[in-house]
Amino acid sequence: MAFINWIEEPALRRPVMILAMAGWNDASSVASTSVRFLIDRWQAKKFAEIDPEEFFSFTRIRPQVRLDENEGRIIVWPETGFYYHVDPLLDRDFVLLIGIEPSFKWRTFSEAIVQVCQEAHISSVLSLGGLAAQVPHTLAARVTGSTSDPDLAAQFPDLAVRRSRYEGPTGIVGVLSDMLNRAGIPTGSLWGNVPHYISASPNPKVAHGLLTRLNGMFGLGLDLDDMARSGRRFERQVNEALAQNPEVAQYVKQLEQAQADGEATEPLPEAPPESSEPSDLPRGEDVVRHLEEFLRQQRSKPGDADPEGQGD
């Protein structure tokens, strides 16, 4: 296919693809943060990419100007990149796909990804996502997994066999999963549940939850201490912001109690990002603005060192 730029064609052992697409299915960037972490930690090598020219509105998703080591200008275009990681200590290899939900030609875009999967002999595809949910930020991040393939569920018990009950608009992850299944490539998904009252991005605590689940599923042996520290720092900053908003602080306590009582509702993964917000949340948009402004101020403080060395 003309849209695929091949850099190399690696020989891989029963590779599993782990993918993240920024956009509709990536609340608080938890999926793309997780895959970027894997690419960086593994120093994964790019072997293919999809040319963005046919698929993106560059007035909506603009290319970026960067400076190289000689301070020369480089134009960085929206990426849909395929990376691979080989570790002889693991029983399989991994392909990592990082991209952005395209503006145009979703079917053609998905067909290009399916073709890469076929030529790389991908054994299964695991998509990561983030969804807004009625969960408190104070408890361990909730991660839900699903697949419609019984064999994949037997291989990875973290993936419950379930058929989606959702009807309505979908994102590129839903379209791509459908096309992969039609091509005979089994798919599963892991969804990090993001507190719907915090839209700040990224959310390292939920990203840590996704990475922890991947660590257990595949026996990756990843050191996630840095991500855990970032998650704890993020939680402290949110707590400071909520201390100035008693109504929302009380609402968070209600969410904690609902989860303790087993009354928490499980969101539908493909549902629109705004569909999880309950009507009793006080002035939700104002709360989000207040939290985001507070978190921006915290990040911009000069010399804002991580206080982890002083204890959690």
Walk me through the structure:
This protein has 312 residues and is α/β, with parallel strands linked by helices. It has one domain: PAC-like subunit (Rossmann fold, 3-Layer(aba) Sandwich), CATH 3.40.50.10900. Helix content is 35%, strand content 20%. It contains 8 helices and 11 strands. It has a 9-stranded mixed beta sheet, with helices on both faces. A two-stranded antiparallel ribbon has the order 4-5. A hairpin with an 8-residue loop joins strand 6 and strand 7. The longest helix is centred in the C-terminal third of the chain and has 18 residues. The protein is globular, with a radius of gyration of 20 Å. 37% of the residues are buried. The C terminus is likely disordered.
Notable traits:
about 300 residues; Rossmann fold; 9-stranded mixed β-sheet; two-stranded antiparallel ribbon; 8 helices
Strand and helix layout:
Elements (H helix, E strand, L loop, with lengths): L3 E3 L9 E7 L7 H13 L2 E6 L13 E4 L5 E4 L4 E5 L8 E7 L5 H14 L4 E10 L9 E5 L2 H6 L4 E2 L10 H11 L4 E9 L8 H15 L6 H18 L3 H15 L23 H17 L12
Parallel strand pairs: 2-7, 2-8, 8-11, 9-10
Antiparallel strand pairs: 1-3, 3-6, 4-5, 6-7, 9-11
Compact overview of the structure:
This protein has 312 residues and is of the alpha/beta class. It contains 8 helices and 11 strands. It has one domain: 3-Layer(aba) Sandwich (Rossmann fold).
Globular, elongated, flat, extended or rod-shaped: what is the shape? globular
- End-to-end gap: 52 Å
Helices and strands, in order, run as EEHEEEEEHEEHEHEHHHH
Strand content: 15-25%
